Sequence to fold (147 residues):
Amino acid sequence: MTKLVFFNQGIEQLSELIEAPKEKPTLITLYGYPCHGKTELIHRVQARFEGEKVILGVNPNHKTLQHAGKFRDEVDSYIFHCAWMRNMIDTDKKLNYDPNGWAEELFRKKIDLNALVYNPNLMGTPNLTLDLYDLIIINPESKRKFS
Fold:
């Protein structure tokens, strides 16, 4: 079932997942349109673990794949910064840019958490397929970076 939380609770949820003992690395995808708070969320989670764990916030692209393959055992967590919304077409076709399509092959495990970050003031209520997300992080405080 999809859980709804606000931004600070989202930081807590991601931090708890990263702290929980399990097979390394922790794989998290953050979906959402630009200016909804994905980058800020990644920075806040990274700051919590500074000096303790290696947490990479990365865009899912070919360079990411090359890096991940080389350093997979040295990284505690990957947080994939996905500037789009998941939908059924992406999931069915497993398009090569969506981490859910290639994580299992590259890391030999599935994504641990699929989250959506969104600001209802910038977007209103999104038309979502809720079962594509484990967590929805509502961030009404985010601001547009550009006009």
